[in-house]
UniProtKB/TrEMBL annotation:
Coiled-coil annotated residue ranges, if any: none
InterPro entries linked: CFA/CMAS, CMAS, SAM-dependent_MTases_sf
Xref: Gene3D superfamilies: Vaccinia Virus protein VP39
Name of this chain's protein: Cyclopropane-fatty-acyl-phospholipid synthase
Annotated GO biological process: lipid biosynthetic process; methylation
Family from the record: Belongs to the CFA/CMAS family.
Organism whose genome encodes this protein: Meira miltonrushii
Entry GO MF terms: methyltransferase activity
Region (Disordered): 206-232
SUPFAM superfamilies documented for this protein: S-adenosyl-L-methionine-dependent methyltransferases
UniProtKB keywords: Lipid metabolism, Methyltransferase, S-adenosyl-L-methionine, Transferase
Record Pfam families: CMAS (PF02353)
Superkingdom, natural source: Eukaryota
Amino acid sequence: MEIIEQDGKQRTLFGDPVSKRAITKKDKSINHEFTHAVLNVKNDIFWIRLALGSDLGFAESYMLAEVETNDLGDCFKLFIQNREVLSNLSIGLISKASSYLQSVLNKRYANTKSGSLRNIGAHYDISNRMYEAFLSKDMMYSCAVFPTLDADVSGPLLESVRNLKAAEEQATTNGHAHINGHSHPRSGIVSERGIAAPVRYDLGQQNTTNEANAPDGQLTPPDSITGGAPRSPLLLAKDELEDGQLRKVRLHLDRASLQSNHTLLEIGTGWGTLAIEAVRSSGCKVDSLTLSVEQKALAEQRIAKAGLQDKIKVHLMDYRDMPIEWNERFDRIISIEMLEAVGIEYLPTYFENVNRVLKRDTGVCVVQVITMPEERFDSYINEVDFIRKWIFPGGVLPSVTALIDAATKGAKGSLILDTVHSIGPHYARTLREWRQRFEQHFDERIRPALLDDHAEIRHLSPSEKQKQVQIFRRKWLYYFIYCEIGFTERVIGDHILSFTRSGNKSLPVCCM
């Protein structure tokens, strides 16, 4: 990593110098692909934030435009690849003081009942209009599941996918498309490694083309902030993100094995898609819990539009407040990426309540959770990182072991782990899709929604208003890329776990 000081003259190289030789191609014997990024320090306060706050300080300096980079994604990759070296730097007095302050913040953001409502509202009660601008029509704000992880990436792979889609429109045989005399499955092209190919996020390049006026099938130039990751033309013809979200929903419904006579409890309504699809596919009845007033209102509108208001009831309710009348009421419980908001100390309480309302002999609970690897879990829970301060206050990613232990403790052994599936690598592409839409619709839809919702910003002077809007924008772009690289590098995960009762033979054997 090259670091350019504020005066523009001093350059520092961080990391193994061999990387520089590889990038400049002076050493032909090196055939590895090295990560390279340039940091341009715009304000020396960046160094103070970095010393006091480590990665959180870096994030806040980026939000405030005190530091720029040619590729934010590569910066994160370098941080991950050098995390052992960087962790050894965090042993000084300043870092210890910072760790103490972070532990205080952890207590501040604790998910008590009142804290949960405040913490959820801090993120989700941003206008529904903003979420509609970057989510697909299904309004699922969780990891999608794609037939291939990197078909949205530009280059030869994307060209192959274009050819595949064009051939599919002309002729298919036994579910296969014919391209250049060869038969290819409809599921698309998969890279050799089966994981998301690298995407560059270049900063400082100007977007001079209006995407709406670009010729059909062409990629737009890089965005002025993140650049380098063009928007996929596949979105013009077919929304693969929506397909991926519905595929994820079907995974949950299949694992739950819903029947028409079942009653389903959904903990975490979102905007109602899972509840709607559950009723459409099985005819079951659904009770759904949310803490977001904004989400409840839109979910109920969507449910009514689907004509399913007699089958689905949305409750503004904490899971700890489920009435005693619900004891052993539900055949199935599904919760998608809600447990991250529970808090580690309350996980046993969550599963205690799940156990209380789930039927005793044949009940099934399916949860999808973003997870932290076991080796970093203990240190992680005592920190406040960018996500926990600026995106999901009070949120904590459990490890898979912590989840299973909490289920065992909370349910006193009455919830039996049945299956665990990892879908984490699919989140990298999901986040790219969201970021592309966020950038595409920012000026037209997201900025107006932000100003409508926040009078304190709307009434500022033009220059200060623009500054606050850009801080908001850079925060969200940082969030999308930060998380994408985490999933690409497999340093965070996403798992679907299913629990049932001992001796339940009615649940189909999973062969995934």
